[in-house]
Specification:
By secondary structure, the chain is an alpha/beta fold. It has a single domain, classed as Glycerol-3-phosphate (1)-acyltransferase (3-Layer(aba) Sandwich). Helices cover 35% and strands 17% of the residues. It is built from seven helices and nine strands, in the order H-E-H-E-E-H-E-H-E-H-E-H-E-E-H-E. The strands form two sheets. A seven-stranded mixed beta sheet has the order 2-8-7-3-6-4-5, with helices on both faces. Strands 1-9 form a two-stranded parallel ribbon. Strand 4, helix 4 and strand 5 form a beta-alpha-beta unit. Helix 2 crosses helix 3 and helix 5 crosses helix 6. The radius of gyration is 19 Å and the shape is globular. The two termini are 28 Å apart.
Length: 271
């Protein structure tokens, strides 16, 4: 069932919450070019990138967020980071997820770098703009060289007191009101950087006008890595604490269910 059919019926059937994807865009993932420059270190490029980011994209996307009624709650949690860079983990419920983080959450000037699938690289002009705005394409399976370069770049940005945004659920489930279970794989980055994790949960509220729900984004308190433990232990700790905080918050927060997600049992034809 594609998402156009889902919007008509207001019911989405799924079989695996970690693999099923209801993405509206449908672009194909492409290989990341060999020796892709994940780090933005050229001062001239960084200058024009800053102009594009702060002077053009941020105000434009900020206006988009205002027009679409996106609200941000608990900004004071950002102060608990004590000026450190961090890895942000958020549920993935809309194609506008990237916009709200770029324009709203980090209103005080910090850069946010966004980890995402490589399908953006298939669009010639967009891929250059995306890179300037902090997009970090995820290499295809088996591309070890670019995977190492990606991890190194994320650590580089976090140590520069910037942010790296990760959607651990991987796939978009539009208007979903819960937080799906996700693996601990992406928490290896935070553990190796010995950096805090910032859980963020997007919820849905009923609109005053129209039918389409509006988003409220809640920033939860940061989770700091443990001291004197191994990278693997911190990876598991950060994963469990982040998943628990996000799921519990989504469960206890009243939300407007615009689309009902129903698990479809796989038929067993064995006799």
């Amino acid at each position: 069932m594609n998402f156009k059919e889902v919007k008509k019926t207001k019911i989405a059937y799924y079989t695996d919450e970690r693999k099923d994807d209801f993405n509206e865009v449908g672009l194909k993932r492409v290989p990341v070019p060999e020796n892709y420059k994940y780090k933005r270190t050229n001062p001239i490029n960084n200058f024009f990138s800053a102009i594009l980011y702060h002077g053009i994209a941020k105000p434009f996307i900020g206006l988009y967020c205002v027009c679409h009624g996106i609200r941000i709650k608990n900004r004071k949690a950002l102060k608990l980071l004590e000026g450190k860079g961090a890895y942000i983990y958020s549920n993935h419920v809309s194609i506008s997820d990237v916009f709200k983080f770029q324009a709203q959450v980090f209103f005080f000037g910090r850069r946010v770098n966004i980890l995402g699938y490589s399908d953006t690289l298939s669009m010639p002009i967009v891929r250059n703009l995306a890179r300037a705005l902090g997009f970090l394409p995820l290499p295809l399976k088996g591309d070890v060289k670019n995977m190492v370069a990606l991890a190194d770049a994320m650590d580089f940005y976090v140590k520069k007191r910037q942010y790296v945004l990760i959607y651990p659920e991987a796939h978009i489930w539009p208007y979903y009101t819960k937080v799906r279970s996700f693996s601990n794989g992406s928490f290896n980055y935070a553990a190796k950087s010995n950096a805090p994790v910032l859980p963020v949960v997007t919820t849905w509220r009923k609109p005053l006008i129209g039918k389409t729900p509006r988003q409220t984004v809640y920033i939860l308190d940061p989770i700091f890595p443990l001291e004197n433990v191994s990278v693997n232990e911190n990876k598991e700790y950060l994963h469990q604490e982040c998943l628990k905080a996000m799921q519990e918050f989504a469960e206890k927060t009243p939300q407007y269910e615009y689309i009902k997600y129903v698990k479809k049992e796989i038929e067993n034809n064995d006799q």
